[in-house]
UniProtKB/TrEMBL annotation, chains A, D:
The keyword Iron does not apply. Part of the binding-protein-dependent transport system for D-xylose. Probably responsible for the translocation of the substrate across the membrane. It is found in: Cell membrane. This is Xylose transport system permease protein XylH. GO terms for cellular component: plasma membrane. One of its GO terms (molecular function) is transmembrane transporter activity. The chain crosses the membrane at residues 31-49, 61-81, 111-132, 139-158, 178-200, 221-239, 245-263, 290-312, 324-343, 350-369, 375-393. It is a multi-pass membrane protein. The keyword Disulfide bond does not apply. Keywords: Cell inner membrane, Cell membrane, Membrane, Sugar transport, Transmembrane, Transmembrane helix, Transport. InterPro entries: ABC_transp_permease.
C-alpha cells in the first residue's frame, strides 16, 4: 500500500525503507520510538537484575499484560472518537463479581456465568453510550457516574460473601493458567502470523498490479514479512523455554488482531476514525454518529468485562474493588503511550499492546528489584515520562507540519 | 412543463438567536436545470443549503421532493433522497486520507472488508476528471492545499447517483483551469438530468452555466431571474439591494427552462 | 500523654428530643468486607439487645479522611448520643474527635486507636498479630530448615498504623531466624500488587528458593498464592494471612495457605456496643473496660488467635463466624473430608 | 455588554431578559440548568432530612467546598486550553506534606513553610508545563507521570513520621477554622460584591454611551444587581446564623473572582481562551503558545498546592496520600459539571464553584442520611448523571447550532 | 531605483515528506508595490506565504528585509518586522467573538485590563470600511458566514502599522461589492507605501490591482511579469504550464514600478 512501483531493485528497497520511516514518523503508526524506548527499558532492567530476561519472567510478563491490555484495547476505541471512558475499572470489577456470584454462589455453569458477565459489560457500555449519544452528556461525566455506580453495585453483590475464591481448575482460572506445552503451538502461531501477513500483502500487490496502480515491490514485502517473522519466532522461542504458549496471550493476540481488522479494514472502523477526525464532517457524510458512539462505548464495556475476568483469573479470586482509579489510569496510559491520540482519530489496537508492555515491564522490573514503594512511584513516573519524551522528541525532530 | 419540480421549498424560515438567517424563503429546482443561488455575504445562502441537506433543519416551512412533502431531519435523509452536497467549509475528516474521505459513508466492500484497491482506483479516476494533481491519495486531507481539498469535496459529491447537487461556492479556491472543468462538469450533469443548485459570487460563472438565478437578500427572496434574458447589472443590483424585487420564484407551471 | 483529654464519662448531649438515643457508627471503607459483614450487624444487634429504644446510624468513609471528618460533622448535626469510630487515619481524626467532645458526644475508638479525647477503646493487639504470624511461619518451615531458609515478606500498607504494627511484630520474631530475601510494602493492601511483587520475587530468586511467605493479610495472601501457582510452584510453601476471610479459610482447608489470624469480631463488637450504650446514657464505659491505654483511656484489649487447618472448628466455627456448610461448599468438600471437617462419604450437616 | 439599547422600557427589560436567557443557553455561561439542578438537589435532601438546611450544615458545606474547589479552579484553566492535569491530587498532597515537614518536623515558621509549599506547587506545575510545551508530550501523560512521581515523593517525605498533626491553633489550621463572628463581615462582603458589580456595569454603560455604541439599559443593570444582592445577602444571613463568615469562604470567593477577572478581562486570559479555540490560529496571531501553556499548568499546580493546604487544614493533619484518583476526578468533575468544556475554550472559574456545590451537596446529603456504602456509590453516580443530563438536555432543546 | 526591496527571498525550498512544495524560489516585493502570486492549485503559493509569515519556516533559503538577511522562525518574528497576513484558511479562534479575534495578540488595555469598549469601537470601524454586515461583533466567529469570517481575517491584518501585507486568496468567498472594496483597499494601502503580496485565481482582480505577477508552478518560479504590459493569455499559459518561463524575478536594480 505504501510504496509506489519504481525501477532499480536497490533503489526500490532504499526508497521503500525511506517511505516506511516517513510513514512511521508521521504519527499514524508512529510506534517506532516507543519500541526503541521499550528496548532501552529492557536493557536497563536486565543490567540491574539478570533475571529480567529469564523465560519465566518474560512469560509471566506476557500473561500479565493481558487483563489490563484488553481494557486498554477498549479504551483505544473510545480515544479514537475523541472521548474517554473512566468506568472501565469499575465495569471490569463488576463483571468479575457477576461471574463469581453466579458461578460460585449460585452454582450456574461456568460458561453461562461467563457469557452473562461479558454481556453485562456490553450492556453497561451501551447504557453509557446511550446517555452520551442521546442526551449529549459528555462521555467523561457519564462514565464518571458509571465508575461510582458500578462500584456500588459490585460492593453490594459481594457484600454478603466478601472475597470469593474461583475454582482453580475452572474455565476462568484456566484463562491465565493454561499453557500449550507443545512447542508446536507457539511456533505455529508465529508462522501463521507471518504467513497471513505475507499472503495478504501479496494479494494486495497482485490486485493493484492488475488495476495498473502503484504497488509495493515484492522485495519490500519480503523484508517486512521477515521482520515480523523474526520477532514472532523469537517470542515463541522464549515462551517455549518456560511453559509454552500461554492461552491468555493467544486470546489477546487474536482479539487484538481481529479488532485491528475491524477498525482498519471495515466500513465500521472507518466511521470510528471519521468521528475522531471531525464529528460534524462525519455527520454530514451520513454517518450515524449516535449509533457509532453507542457501539464504541459498548466495545469498551465489553473489553472491560473481558479484561476483568482475566484479572480475576490471574489471582483466582474476586474481591471488593478498590475505588482507586489506578486501573483506568493504567489502561489509558497504555493506549496513549502506545501512540493513540487523546484528541481522537489516530491510533491502533496494537498501541495498547505496546503501551501495556512498557507499563508492565516497569512494574515487573520494580518487583524484581524489590524497590520500596515511595521510590517505586517516583521511578515509574520518571520512566513513563522518559519513554514518552523520547517518543515525542523523535517525532518532533521530523519536520513540523502545519496545515494549509 | 407540468412535471412537479424536483425540489421545492415553501416558506422556509430559520433563526439563530436574534438573527433571521432565512425568512419565508421559496425555491424550486427542476430536473435538468441549474439554478444559481446568489446573494451578498451573510444573505443566508449556506444556511439554505444546510437546510436542504438536512444538516441544520429549518424552523418552519415545507420541503417538497418530486411534488411530495418530505421531512429531511438528518443528512442521512437527504442522501437517501439523492441529494449530494459540497459545503462551503468542505467538511472533510482531517485525519482520513483522500480515498477515505471520498468514500466516507459509502465504502466499497468485499465480503464485509473494505476494498481499498477499488476505492483508490475510482478516486484516482474522479480526481483525473477534475484535472487536479493530488500528490498522494493516501495522504490525510489535512496536508492538502485549499484547492486540492475543494476538489476532494467535489469528488465526494459525485459518488453514488445523486439527483440533486448542492454546490456551495465550489470553485472559490480553484485555479482557472480547474474552475473551467467544474463548470463543464456541471453542464454535463445537467444534461444527464440532474438538478443543480450553484452558489457563486462570480457572475461570469453564473452566466456561463446557470439557467435561472434566485437571489437572497437578508434572508429573504429578492428576485428570481432567467439568466439568459437578464442583464448582469440587473442581477447585481438585486444582490446588493439597489433594487428590491419582492417577486418570488414562479410556482410550478409558470417556470421551466 | 493525653490523660487530660481522655476522660471517662461525658455528659451526653440531650438524647434527642424524642428521648431515643442514637448511636453513630463510622467505618473506614467498604473494601475490607468485615465492617459491613460482621462489625456493623454485630454492634447493631448488641445495641438492640442492651437498649431496645436506641437506634444506630452507620456510614462508611470510602477510605477518605476528609469524608470521615465530614461524617463526624453530620453526626454532630444530627446530635447522636455516642459515636463508635473506626478512624481511617488515627492521627488525622484527632480534630474530629475533639469536635465531638466539644459537642458532648463520647467517642469509642474501635479497632484502631484514634488520637484525641476518646472515651473508650477496643481492639486487638497489632504487634501480637505480627508475632503470631511470624511464629506460625517459623513453625511451618520447621526448626531444622529455618536457619538457612529464605522467605519473602509481603507487608501491608505502611500508611496504615496497623500495617506498621504487624510488620514490627513479625520482624521482632523473624529477624535472625530466617533470611528475608525480599520485602515489599503494598500500598493500598492491593492483592494484584501482591501478585506482581510475588511474581517478581519468584523471577528474581528462582522458584526453589522460597521457603515461606509472610503475607500481612488474607488479601495479600491470595495474590501471593496466585503468583506461586501461576509459576507452577508445587507444593506451595507456607503462606500466612490475617482476618480469617472465608476465602482464606477455604484456602487453608485446601492446604494452599498455611494460616491466618482470627480476630473474633463478636467480643470486639459486643464490647464496643456495651461501652457505647453505657456512654450514651451518660455513664462511664462500664466494668468491661479493664485495660488502660495511652495513660488512662479505658480499653478492652483482645487477643488474636492463630488459625490453621487444625483449629478451624475451635475458632471461626465455634465463634459463629462461619458455618461448616459455608466453608465446605461442594468444591471444597473433598478437602474438608481430608481435614476432618465433615465426615467422609456422608452429606454434610 | 449584552443588550443593545432600545426604546420602551418595558420591552427593553423583556428583551434584555430574553437575550440573557439566550446567552445563558448558548453555553458560554450556560450555568442556569446546573443552578436549577442544584436547587432541586437541595430540595430533595431537605425533604429527606430536615437538617440539610440547618445553618451549621450549610456553613460546613461552604467550607468543605473550598479545598477541592481551589483545585478545580486550577483545573478550569487547564481545561480551557483543552488539556487535562491529572497530577493535582498528588501535588496537593505533596504541598501539604512539604508544609507539615518544614513546619512541624523542621520547625520553620508557619508563613515560610506555607510560602515554600505553595511555591513548590507552582514549580511542579511549571515543570509539567515545560515538558508539555517544550517536548510536546501530551499533558495527560506528563501529569500522569507527575501523579506517580509526586505521590512517591510525598510517601518518602512522610515515610519517617507517618501522619503529621498540624498545630490546631496555627495559621494553616485557622484557614478553615476561623470565622468572622461579627455579622457585619458577611453582610459587608455581600454588599461589596453587589456594589462592585453595579459600579462596573454603570461605568461600562457610561463609556459605551459616550462612544455612541449600544449599551445596557439602566433597568437591566438594576435587575441583575438586585439578583446578585439577593443571593449574596441570603447566603450571608445563613452564615451569620451559625458562626459567621468563614475565612476559607472569603479567601475562596476573592480568589475565584480575581482569577475570573484575570481570565476574562486581561490580555493573558484572552490568550488562554484563544488556545482553547484553536492552537494554530492563536500561534499565527503571535500568541506565545509555549509560554501560555507553561503558565496555565503553573496556575494549576499553584492552585493544587493551595487546595492541598486547605484540605490539610480541614483535618489539621497531613497523612499518606491515597493513591486513588478520587480527588482529581472530583476536581475535574466539578469543573465539567459547572459547565467547563473538556474540549477547551469554554468555561469560567465560577463553574468550579457551582460544580463543587453539586458534588459536596451530594456527599453532605449522603452523610446526613447515613446511606450504606454500596448504595452511596450508586446514588452519587445516579445523582451526578441526573444533574448533568438535566443540563445537557436543556441546552439541547435550544436550537442545535452547526457551522457554516 | 536603488532602494533595496522590502522583502526578498533567495533560493527558498521546502519539502513535506516526498512532496517538494517549494523548490529554489526567488521573490522580491518593493514598497508601494502590489505583487500578485499566481499558480495552479497545489503550486505552493500558500506554503510560500507561510514561510514568509514564519508559520512554517523554509528548509533552505535566505529572506532579506530592507536588504538585510533576517531569520523568521515564528509568526511573532514576522509580526515584529511589520508583516501582516490573511491566511487562506483564515486561522480564527472559533470560540472568540469578532472583537476578540481582530485584536488577538494586540489587545488594547487600560491599566492592564482589556478595554473592550475601545476595541469594539475600532472593530466596528474596520468592518464598516469593508462594507460588510456582521450581525453582532460579540458573537463567536464560529457562527459567521464564510464571507463574514474572511472579512474578520482581513480586518485583523489591518491592525497595527504593517509594512507588508500577505493576502492569500482574500476575496475567495466575498461578494461582488465586498471584493471591490477589498481591491480598493489594496490600492489605497499601496499608495500609502505598503508592499502587498496578493494571491488570487481571479485574473480580473489581478489585472486590476497588481503591478507585477510572479508565477509558481510545481513549487518553482515559472515567470515574472509586468502586469500592465503582459496579456492575460500569456500569464495563464504560464500558470497552466503551457509555456515554461525559466526567467526569475529580476534582482534589485532591474525592477521597480
Ligand atoms: N450557527 C449560527 N449561529 C448564529 N448565526 C448564524 C449561524 N450560522 C449562520 N448564522 C448567521 O446567519 C447569516 C447567514 O449566514 P450564511 O452562512 O447562510 O450566509 P451566506 O449567504 O452563505 O454568506 P457567504 O456568502 O458569506 O457564505 C449570517 O449573518 C450568519 O452570521
Ligand atoms: N503540511 C503538509 N504536509 C504535506 N504536504 C503538504 C503540506 N502542506 C502542503 N502540502 C503540499 O504542498 C503542495 C503545495 O501546497 P499549497 O497549499 O502551498 O498550494 P497552493 O498553491 O496554495 O494551492 P491552492 O491554490 O489550492 O491553495 C500541495 O501539493 C500540498 O499537498
Ligand atoms: Mg456561505
Ligand atoms: Mg493555497
Amino acid at each position: 500500500m505504501t510504496g509506489r512501483a519504481s525501477t532499480a531493485p536497490g533503489r526500490r528497497v532504499k526508497r521503500a525503507l525511506g517511505q516506511a520511516w516517513e510513514r512511521l514518523s508521521q504519527g499514524e503508526s508512529g510506534s517506532l520510538p516507543v519500541v526503541l524506548g521499550l528496548v532501552l527499558l529492557w536493557a536497563v532492567f536486565q543490567g540491574l537484575n539478570g533475571n529480567f530476561f529469564s523465560p519465566r519472567n518474560l512469560s509471566n510478563l506476557s500473561v500479565d499484560i493481558v487483563g489490563t491490555g484488553l481494557i486498554a484495547v477498549g479504551i483505544v476505541f473510545v480515544l479514537l472518537i475523541g472521548e474517554i471512558d473512566l468506568s472501565v475499572g469499575s465495569v471490569s470489577a463488576l463483571a468479575a463479581a457477576v461471574f463469581a456470584v453466579l458461578n460460585v454462589n449460585e452454582g450456574l455453569p461456568e460458561w453461562l456465568a461467563l457469557v452473562i458477565a461479558v454481556l453485562a459489560g456490553a450492556l453497561i457500555g451501551a447504557l453509557h453510550g446511550f446517555f452520551f449519544a442521546r442526551f449529549g452528556v459528555p462521555a467523561f461525566v457519564v462514565t464518571l457516574a458509571g465508575l461510582l455506580a458500578w462500584n456500588g453495585l459490585t460492593l453490594y453483590l459481594l457484600g454478603q460473601s466478601g472475597t470469593i475464591n474461583l475454582d482453580d481448575q475452572g474455565l476462568v482460572a484456566k484463562l491465565t493458567s493454561y499453557y500449550f506445552h507443545d512447542i508446536a503451538a507457539a511456533y505455529g502461531l508465529a508462522a501463521l502470523g507471518a504467513a497471513v501477513f505475507f499472503l495478504a500483502a501479496c494479494r494486495d500487490r497482485r490486485r493493484r498490479k492488475a488495476a495498473a496502480m502503484p504497488y509495493r515491490p515484492l522485495r519490500e514485502i519480503a523484508v517486512r514479512t521477515g521482520l515480523i517473522a523474526a520477532v514472532a519466532f523469537a517470542a515463541a522461542y522464549v515462551l517455549n523455554q518456560f511453559q509454552g504458549l500461554p492461552l491468555a496471550l493467544l486470546i489477546f493476540v487474536v482479539l487484538v488482531a481481529a479488532l485491528d481488522v475491524l477498525l482498519r479494514r471495515t466500513p465500521y472502523g472507518r466511521r470510528v476514525y471519521a468521528l475522531g477526525g471531525g464529528v460534524e464532517a462525519a455527520r454530514r457524510a451520513g454517518v450515524r454518529v449516535a449509533w457509532v458512539r453507542v457501539s464504541v462505548l459498548t466495545v469498551s464495556g465489553t473489553m472491560a468485562a473481558l479484561g476483568g475476568l482475566f484479572l480475576a483469573s490471574r489471582i483466582t479470586s474476586v474481591g471488593q474493588p478498590s475505588t482507586s482509579g489506578i486501573l483506568v489510569l493504567n489502561a489509558i496510559a497504555a493506549a496513549v503511550i502506545g501512540g493513540t491520540s487523546l484528541f481522537g482519530g489516530h491510533g491502533r489496537t496494537w498501541c495498547a499492546v505496546l503501551g501495556m508492555l512498557v507499563i508492565q515491564s516497569i512494574s515487573s522490573g520494580m518487583a524484581l528489584l524489590s524497590i520500596q514503594s515511595a521510590l517505586q512511584f517516583m521511578i515509574t513516573g520518571g520512566v513513563l515520562l522518559a519513554a514518552v519524551v523520547l517518543d515525542s522528541v523523535s517525532r518532533r525532530s521530523q519536520k513540523s507540519r502545519g496545515r494549509a | 412543463m407540468s412535471d412537479p419540480p424536483l425540489l421545492a421549498l415553501r416558506g422556509v424560515s430559520k433563526r439563530f438567536g436574534a438573527v433571521h438567517a432565512l425568512d419565508d424563503v421559496e425555491l424550486e429546482i427542476h430536473t435538468g436545470e441549474v439554478v444559481a443561488l446568489l446573494g451578498d455575504n451573510g444573505a443566508g445562502k449556506s444556511t439554505l443549503v444546510k437546510v436542504i441537506a438536512g444538516v441544520d433543519p429549518a424552523d418552519r416551512g415545507v420541503m417538497e421532493w418530486d411534488g411530495r412533502a418530505v421531512q429531511v431531519k438528518r443528512p442521512h435523509d437527504a442522501q437517501a433522497l439523492g441529494i449530494a452536497t459540497v459545503y462551503q467549509d468542505l467538511a472533510l475528516c482531517e485525519n482520513l486520507d483522500v480515498v477515505g474521505n471520498v468514500f466516507l459513508g459509502r465504502e466499497v466492500r468485499r465480503v464485509g472488508i473494505l476494498d481499498e484497491v477499488e476505492m483508490e482506483r475510482r478516486t484516482l479516476g474522479l480526481l483525473a476528471a477534475l484535472s487536479i494533481r493530488v500528490p498522494d491519495v493516501r495522504l490525510p486531507v489535512a496536508t492538502l492545499s485549499g484547492g486540492q481539498r475543494q476538489t476532494v469535496a467535489i469528488s465526494r459529491s459525485l459518488l453514488g447517483e445523486p439527483r440533486l447537487l448542492l454546490l456551495d461556492e465550489p470553485t472559490a479556491s480553484l485555479g482557472v483551469e480547474q474552475t473551467a472543468q467544474v463548470l463543464d462538469l456541471v453542464e454535463r450533469l445537467r444534461d444527464r438530468g440532474l438538478g443543480v443548485l450553484l452558489i457563486s459570487h462570480n457572475m461570469g460563472d453564473v452566466k456561463a452555466v446557470a439557467d435561472h438565478a434566485a437571489v437572497l437578500r437578508l434572508g429573504r427572496n429578492n428576485g428570481f431571474f432567467d439568466v439568459t434574458t437578464t442583464s448582469q447589472e440587473q442581477i447585481i443590483s438585486s444582490i446588493t439591494g439597489a433594487t428590491s424585487h419582492a417577486r418570488r420564484p414562479p410556482r410550478t407551471g409558470e417556470a421551466g427552462p | 500523654g493525653r490523660a487530660a483529654e481522655s476522660g471517662t464519662a461525658v455528659r451526653p448531649a440531650s438524647p434527642t428530643a424524642s428521648g431515643r438515643p442514637t448511636i453513630g457508627l463510622l467505618v473506614p471503607d467498604s473494601i475490607t468486607p468485615r465492617w459491613d459483614r460482621f462489625d456493623r450487624p454485630l454492634i447493631e444487634r448488641r445495641i438492640g439487645q442492651l437498649c431496645p429504644a436506641c437506634s444506630v446510624v452507620s456510614v462508611s468513609a470510602q477510605g477518605d479522611v476528609a469524608l470521615q471528618r465530614q461524617q463526624v460533622d453530620s453526626m454532630i448535626i444530627k446530635r447522636v448520643s455516642a459515636l463508635v469510630l473506626v478512624p481511617v487515619d488515627a492521627k488525622a481524626m484527632r480534630p474530629a474527635v475533639k469536635k465531638a467532645r466539644e459537642a458532648h458526644i463520647p467517642v469509642v475508638s474501635y479497632d484502631r486507636l484514634a488520637q484525641g479525647p476518646i472515651s473508650a477503646y477496643v481492639s486487638f493487639d497489632g504487634q501480637e498479630v505480627g508475632r503470631l504470624q511470624a511464629k506460625a511461619l517459623l513453625k511451618a518451615i520447621g526448626p531444622r530448615r529455618a536457619p538457612g531458609a529464605g522467605i519473602v515478606m509481603m507487608n501491608g500498607d505502611l500508611a496504615d498504623p496497623n500495617g506498621v504494627a504487624f510488620k514490627k511484630g513479625a520482624l521482632s520474631v523473624l529477624t535472625g531466624k530466617v533470611r528475608i530475601e525480599k520485602s515489599y510494602d503494598t500500598a493500598g493492601w492491593r492483592p494484584d500488587s501482591a501478585y506482581t511483587n510475588m511474581a517478581g520475587a519468584i523471577a528474581a530468586l528462582g522458584p526453589r528458593h522460597i521457603d515461606g511467605v509472610y503475607a500481612a493479610n488474607d488479601g495479600l495472601a491470595s495474590g501471593v498464592i496466585a503468583a506461586l501457582r501461576a509459576n507452577g510452584i508445587r507444593p506451595i510453601p507456607p503462606v500466612t494471612g490475617q482476618d480469617a476471610e472465608l476465602a482464606a479459610v477455604q484456602r487453608i482447608v485446601e492446604g494452599v495457605q498455611y494460616m491466618t489470624v482470627y480476630k473474633p469480631f463478636k467480643p470486639e463488637a459486643y464490647a464496643a456496643a456495651e461501652m457505647a450504650v453505657a456512654l450514651a446514657h451518660g455513664r462511664g464505659p462500664g466494668p468491661i473496660a479493664r485495660d488502660r491505654v495511652r495513660g488512662g483511656v479505658p480499653a478492652v484489649l483482645l487477643r488474636p488467635i492463630p488459625l490453621t487447618v487444625h483449629s478451624i472448628r475451635r475458632t471461626v466455627v465455634k465463634g459463629g463466624m462461619y458455618t461448616i456448610q459455608q466453608i465446605c461448599t461442594p468444591k471444597y468438600r473433598p478437602a474438608c473430608e481430608r481435614a476432618g471437617l465433615v465426615p467422609s462419604a456422608e452429606p454434610a450437616r
